[in-house]
Amino acid sequence: MTYTCILVETVGDGPRKTGLIRLNRPKALNALCDPLMDELGEALAAFDADAGIGCIVLTGSEKAFCAGADIPSIKDLDFLSAHQGGLVSKNWEHVLKVKKPVLAAVAGYALGGGCELAMMCDTIYAAESAKFGQPEIKIGVIPGAGGTQRLPRWVGKAKAMDLLLTARMMDAQEALQAGLVARVFPTEGFLDEVLKVAELLNAQSAPALALMKEMVNQAFETPLTQGVQAERLAFHAMFGTHDQREGMTAFLEKRAPQWKHG
Ligand code: CO8
Question: Coiled coil: which residue ranges (predicted)?
Fold first, then answer.
């Protein structure tokens, strides 16, 4: 498929590579419009289905990961056209359906829907230049893709309220302290650092990676006892894989495991 709003490539030297997706609407600071979200969904699904891909990195440009929803394309909607037209609901769930790890690599602005998109990924790495915020209040609305729900889960209620109600931006170091991002890297060479992290993931067993991310994400959806039970079942399921046997045997034989990813 030819893409107009994103750039897609595979990166890496190992047997399994990284699927790299760059949001690419530079004139609108990568604002999210329907064509972009449709293309993103296609690209994510294609990488997810490709056995040669270990994980996916989603990034933007140096200036902006993404400045949020494309304001011109939603400005004139009314309630019915927003609701019946499936604004957000029709093409925002793709990233949540991906079984492989999806890493958000954020440099520059991650605002509104951009911050929400990053929070839909499995974890976020930030450049020193990153700025996170939910500025919807300044344009007379509230977040519509999880900002009021995921942000408190990531950073706690007090900071989420502060960010949402004031529309202020949070820099990378504050985001790190708040737990929104996993690590901060220097802006120079930032993407290479994230791609190094991705290489580490690519070298792991695919079923273990997939179940790991599913279980962690489930922790935010279920009560503790239920989550621990689900984890135990998933752990037991791992003993039905070749890679469990190979991983444990390789450890005891003091050699690198040869995964079959099954
Ligand atoms: N949509 C469309 N175009 C945008 C957007 C946007 N969100 N943000 C910036 N642009 C455009 C500007 O209009 C400008 O275009 P032009 O050069 O043609 O005038 C260009 O990008 C560069 O922007 P600025 O000149 O403003 O650049 P600055 O460096 O001065 O400022 C900012 C950068 C701070 C990022 C500023 O552009 C800004 O505040 N942008 C708006 C941020 C915002 O309010 N985001 C929230 C939008 S609402 C939302 O995301 C709700 C999500 C709900 C779910 C999604 C449903 C689809």
Answer: none
